[in-house]
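Fold this sequence, please.
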Amino acid sequence: MKKTKPGKIGLLIILFAFAAFQIYPLVWMFFFSLKSNAENFYTNVAGIPIVWRWENYKNVLIDGGLITYFINSLIYTVITLFVSGILSSMTAYAIARLKWKLSNFVYTLFILGIMIPIQAALLPLFIVLDKIHLLDSYWALLIPYIAFAIPMSILILTSFYKSIPMELEEAAFIDGCSIYKTFFKIILPIVKPAIATVSIFTFLGTWNELIFANTFVNSSKYRTLTVGIMSLNGQHATDWGLIGAGMVIATLPTLIIYIILNRQVQESLVAGAVKG
């Protein structure tokens, strides 16, 4: 049996402590969602619920309408991921691998989109959407979400495309592959880690977005989960257990997505470090 070095034991203790420190807020939020207001703020702030109020989840999903809001957020997120993923992956490939005069100008134009804050675009977007009668509809959020997701995706994907040896494409062209077949069959599988990273950024930005969703949509038919949770705050009294249950429900998809894609994200970080 190999003896464990004291330094390694100390490192493991530090890592476990750091992991517990990071995970505890999630555990606390779960317990928060199962308590009454009295427990949350007076008698049992940080402990395990004395009475487990599982009905909070039923009330928030059915009576609070969070099922509809959850489905709406899922629609916005999935469509944004799909459309922005296709557009940005193809655009980044054209910028990084194809030779044409305006490639640098187009790349700069897209990157400038990262510098535009959401708050600065809020009023102009509202006026434009109002003029073309798209307010209070799915398009009122889909168009801005896709537009704001593309610049960051192009920035990440372009750098990964440039790190791929040109010989791979040249060999594919010699074998008779078209540019589209080369892109989908050879290049796209290579950049899967980068696509996973881009997908997580896009997912987080779309799923957690509040400003656009609260400004461009009024009807509960198109309302997102973040706005739905905010609407649970009553004018005179608030059941904080319901809000906690809504926050747990909103957090679960993020955890699931990261668990599924964490290996690809780690590979992309390692690839970026090696490249740097």
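The mean pLDDT is 86. The chain has 13 helices and no strands.
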